[in-house]
Design brief:
Blueprint (H helix, E strand, L loop, with lengths): L1 H11 L13 H11 L1 H21 L5 E8 L2 E3 L10 E3 L2 E12 L3 H67 L5 H36 L20 H11 L1 H21 L5 E12 L7 E12 L7 H67 L5 H35 L5 H4 L8 H8 L13
Antiparallel strand pairs: 1-4, 2-3, 4-5, 5-6
Helix pairs in contact: 1-4, 2-4, 3-4, 3-11, 4-5, 4-7, 4-9, 6-8, 7-8, 8-9
Length: 455
């Protein structure tokens, strides 16, 4: 029975022992998630769509050009003479009109700044999605590892209890134990088999989550390692980094900029507007058959708003209240980030202590189980004592698996909480997606319906 217990011990150490060559590593799994996760790719598409708002805002600087043409049929019959003469004309023409805004109360300037701030906001939101994706991928990876180890532990426990039941029945047949001992061993074995079924269901659920975030089925997963090299040296350092760098805080600050620009855009409606219009027209058959005329004009126009029923003033006041709301939201986001850092930092410290305590607990329970078995052989312990000792060892090994899993996950959690769980910062082996590349491609486009990737 001692030899049968060894595989269980090895299962507990599955998170710390190297796997076979060619296995999927945590880093490669995170790279897969970074490339193929649909949620992350959806947000990237959303950022690209937002980039176009800058090009749309800049269109206010440019002229608008339109070409129009018309043709018709006119027939007139004079009724004052005996001879009815028919006059048929086909009036038509074409014209080119150009409008250029010269001044609109700085609304185009402020709309452009507003659009650029919104682009920065969604970029930070994309970075937050990237961090959440990588953390969820790491969590699902470690869950598959720990659930696999737990399943092997439960299966090994069934084998141990089957051997325990066989020996108990042999001893019952020779009169060393009672029927009660046999029933206790049978009950414990039935419970262990039920635990195996539960562990299998849990593992299947973890595999499904792994497939969702990483995009493939798990195959030969290598042990996961904590991300300690990116964890700050102290809680205060972690908080300082998070307050300065976390994308949720930066996104909320950019949202304040968007709201402030909206106030200026609305205030621009109170300013005069000036524009210039030039047109050229060619007309045919306007007065009689065969006539032709060309006309051209340049018109400057100045409009001074005097009163619009109070709507614009109300919109400006409303926008200023929104600015105040966004600033309060930013302060709340800072508090949320600070709270999250403190929480996950405590979880990481606790998980480190739990790993050490669980290892000591496993070692102590192994010694205790061996002692109980020896005492049971000489009649000083009952079968129930042996079964309880085995259960305590199983629980200790299960706790060690959970502690090892949490040790890795919470290290990733701290790096996420401070805003640094990104491909660029952690140097994962994958090509980094740059939202700025698309922005530079479209921000100054004057025309064209194809996207930069050819769609």
């Amino acid at each position: 029975m001692r030899t049968r217990l060894r595989p269980a011990g090895l299962a507990v150490l599955a998170l710390a022992v190297a796997s076979s060559a060619g296995a999927e590593t945590l880093e490669s799994a995170l790279s897969r998630a970074y490339d193929a996760n649909p949620t992350l790719n959806s947000d990237r598409a959303g950022v690209r769509a937002t980039d176009e708002n800058v090009a749309q805002a800049k269109s206010g600087y440019r002229p608008t050009v339109s070409l129009d043409a018309d043709i018709g049929l006119t027939q007139s019959k004079p009724g004052t003479t005996r001879v009815q003469l028919s006059n048929v004309r086909r009036p038509g023409g074409a014209g080119l009109t150009i409008n250029q805004t010269l001044f609109n109360g700085f609304r185009t300037d402020n709309q452009t700044r507003q659009a650029e701030s919104d682009v920065l906001r969604v970029r930070e939101a994309l970075r937050a999605t990237e961090m959440n994706t990588l953390f969820n991928a790491a969590q699902s990876y470690m869950s598959v590892l720990s659930d696999t180890a737990n399943l092997e532990l439960r299966r090994n426990n069934v084998e141990v209890l089957e051997e325990q039941l066989r020996q108990t029945r042999d001893r019952f047949n020779v009169g060393e134990v009672t029927r009660t001992d046999v029933a206790q061993a049978e009950a414990r074995l039935a419970g262990a088999r039920s635990d195996v079924s539960g562990a299998e269901a849990t593992l299947r659920a973890s595999i499904g989550t792994y497939r969702r975030y990483i995009g493939v089925e798990p195959r030969q997963l290598a042990p996961g390692r904590p991300l300690d090299r990116y964890v700050p040296g102290s809680l205060d350092a972690a908080i300082n980094i998070g307050i300065k760098e976390h994308p949720q805080i930066l996104s909320s600050l950019h949202l304040v900029d968007v709201a402030e620009a909206q106030v200026k855009v609305l205030e621009g409606a109170l300013y005069p507007t000036a524009g210039l219009q030039g047109s050229v027209q060619q007309r045919f058959d306007s007065q009689f058959q065969g006539d032709s005329a060309v006309s051209a004009s340049i018109v400057g126009r100045l409009t001074i708003p005097l009163y619009e029923g109070g709507q614009t003033y109300s919109q400006i006041r409303q926008a200023k209240e929104t600015v105040g709301q966004r600033r309060l939201d930013a302060e709340d986001t800072r508090d949320q980030v600070r709270s999250a850092i403190v929480t996950v930092w405590g979880q990481l410290e606790a998980s480190k202590a739990q790993v050490i305590a669980s290892q000591a607990q496993v070692q102590a329970n192994e010694v205790a189980l061996n002692g109980v078995r020896e005492e049971a052989r000489v009649g000083q312990r009952t079968t129930l004592d042996v079964l309880n000792a085995q259960q305590e060892l199983l629980n200790a090994r299960t706790n060690l698996i959970v502690a090892q899993r949490n040790r890795v996950i919470f290290s990733y959690g701290v790096v996420q909480a401070i805003g640094r769980l990104t491909v660029r910062f952690t140097s994962l082996p994958v090509a980094v997606y740059s939202p700025k590349k698309h922005f530079d491609q479209v921000k100054d486009l004057w025309y064209g319906v194809r996207t930069p990737d050819g769609r």
